[in-house]
Design goal:
The protein is of the alpha+beta class. The chain contains nine helices and eight strands.
């Protein structure tokens, strides 16, 4: 099981958005009204996160930066030309699709009066009950085929954002060089001076070993724990082997 730990607020937000969009896609494809409610709450969370900052501009700038960096490698004989051109093409198409969105990602959803009324009530614990939102209850009773059409349409407004995140985070993850490391008595420290990393990926050899991490620009500290029953995770007091990847654009 791979664990990922962001080292910057920007990557932290992108990973959160990725998780929400994955949840949206998973539950939107299912058929029950309860699953579609989970998908809608994920959509509402994405809208809340993407509306708090100029996310679209930030993503466009990063896609441009990555494309320009890859274009500069075209004359490098050590680089596989076919894969390079394929990646550049993906970056260009992803950027174009994101740039053509009018306003913020999901702007059309923000202007959807009925969905926004559902969003307002869904943010209250138990607030989406039939007596609170009769129209939402009626929608949940519609034929499965009709609800699936609606979910596909609503999710479609966030697909350009999802594609941009997949490309960016995929490129970031590919920069990691795997190294086999041992954590004596369950703890591991590493100096981070000399390079600014953005993402740490940890794959314990023991699937029962759960990593916890704290880090700053100078030092990374890992502690492995084990969780059983109702007790809080407890430190592991033995050597733990793991695969470590440090990622940076």
């Amino acid at each position: 099981m791979m664990y990922e730990f962001p080292l910057s607020e920007r990557i932290r937000n992108l990973l959160r958005l990725e998780e929400l969009l994955m949840r949206m896609g998973l539950f939107a494809k299912r058929e029950s009204a309860a699953d579609h409610h989970v998908a809608l709450t994920a959509i509402f969370d994405v809208l809340g996160m993407s509306g708090r900052s100029d996310l679209k501009t930030e993503l466009l700038q990063e896609l441009d930066r990555q494309r320009n960096m890859l274009v500069s490698l075209r004359d490098n004989p050590a680089v596989a030309a076919d894969r390079l051109e394929q990646t550049i093409d993906v970056l260009q198409r992803t950027r174009h699709n994101l740039a053509t969105i009018q306003g913020k990602p999901g702007q059309a959803l923000l202007e959807h009066e009925w969905l926004m009324s559902v969003r307002a009530r869904a943010s209250v614990p138990g607030g989406a009950c039939p007596f609170d939102l009769p129209s939402y209850h009626a929608w949940q009773q519609k034929p499965i085929e009709q609800r699936l059409v609606d979910m596909k349409l609503w999710c479609g407004h966030l697909r350009p954002l999802e594609a941009a995140l997949q490309v960016m985070l995929g490129l970031l993850r590919e920069t990691g060089q795997s190294q086999q490391v041992l954590a004596p008595k369950g703890t591991y420290q590493m100096q981070l001076t000399g390079r600014s990393y953005q993402l740490v990926r940890v794959l314990p050899a023991d699937p029962q070993a759960i990593p916890e991490m704290s880090a700053n620009q100078y030092l990374m500290w890992l502690r492995f724990t084990r969780q059983e029953g109702a007790a809080k995770p407890r430190p592991i007091d033995r050597d733990v082997g793991f695969t470590l990847e440090l990622c940076n654009f």
